[in-house]
Amino acid sequence: MTRALVVGAGLSGLATAWHLTEAGVPVHIVDARGQPGGLIRTHRTPEGLVETGANAFLRNERVDRLFRTLNVTPVFPQPSSRRRYIFRNGRPRRWPLTVRGTAVAASRLAASWLTRQLSTQADETVAAWGRRVVGAGATTWLIAPALQGIYAAPADVLSARAVFGHRRGPMRLIAPAGGMGQLIERLMETLDRRGATCEWNRPVTVLDPGRLTVLAVPAPAAASLLSKHAPRLAEAIAQVRMTSLLTVTAFFEPHPHDLRGFGVLFPRSEGVNALGVLFNNEVFPGRSTLRSETWIYGSAFSGPLPADVEILDAVVRDRATLTGQRAAPTASYPTRWPDALPVYDFAVLDVARQRAELPPWLGVSGNYFGRLGATHLLELAEETAARLTRHCRT
Asked: pLDDT tens-digit profile of 188-242?
């Protein structure tokens, strides 16, 4: 049997390759970069673990099975991580709405439920949906900051149907004990045992219709490669806008007044450049003996991503606004991903609709199909592999 070609060795590509080899389909993996993982890597620094992308999965049976099969030891959030904060009026709050704002949001939500107005509309942004369903206050102080921390884009740009349209399970987290990079390593080890072959630093510019192929590459590259084989899908993907992502994992000496919890989200009106901050050693055990914080920057910066010295200054300023303490970190590790994430606006909906145009020998897996997050990428990878496996057996 001719080896299936998997273009892209990020989580999507490796997971699709893993499912193909489970079904007995041999694979050859190529990637334009020099190593696997894509956005997902774990650096093991003297201060502790540094994640360059996603730091966990949403737990479900598919994820549990992957951990078991790869012999990856899971860790789960610590009790302190249940506390999550939104910054308002100069301090972090577990509930940012006033008593009156809470009453207004509750009454608006009840009225929307009774009149069956909770469903999203085709041309509705998240901000418009929120104002209609729960009111302006809850949209500004709850919905907008929560979603900007996930999608790195403002609520008045995000499509409500793209964001809320895909079914989601309980928000329970699970992570590899050795960081997300450990799962990538175990995937590579398993694929190697199953006879998969790999090539690095090899960009692909044309596709062979006679060969079973998976594209697990960023949206611009996917649009170019698909233009001859699925032109409507290629055109839809080409319309997807991308946003850059910049994170800084900074380590500080522990302080008795350190905020305990998962992290803090920053509404745009509060004068903080960061979209949010994660308190890594409060979320999962074993991340560091120091205070480990990952500061997330995205659409708050327009144009080119700032230099390391500028972003470190921004972290120190933003942290001083949050804590009242202007302290330099013991160590800091910036990660910059230009054009890393698709903007989940109305263009993403069109991509999902055009997926049916794919010829039977070709599969595409990526975060521009309306499913953002590591767990949803695993779901899409399994669907893609199943479809191609059926084709090669007919």
From this structure: 999 999 999 999 999 999 999 989 999 999 999 999 999 999 999 999 999 999 8
Question: Distance between CA 2 and CA 346 in Å, rounded?
Answer: 38
The range of the structural domain enclosing residue 231 comes to 4-76+172-241+343-393
Asked whether the beta carbons of 96 and 142 are under 8 A apart, the reply is: yes
Geometric angle at alpha carbon 153, from 215 and 51, rounded to 5°: 65
Q: Do 72 and 183 reside in the same domain of the chain? A: yes
On whether the CB atoms of residues 320 and 295 are closer than 8 A, the answer is no
User: Using an 8 Å Cβ cutoff, are 85 and 264 in contact?
Assistant: yes
CA–CA distance, 19 with 355 (Å, rounded to integer): 20
**Global confidence as pTM:** 0.92
Report the SS3 class of residue 282. Answer: helix
Give, to the nearest 10 degrees, the angle between helix 374-393 and helix 11-22: 40
Name the domain boundary from 119, 145, 164: 164
- CB-CB neighbours of 296 under 10 Å: 20
Query: DSSP code of 217?
Result: S
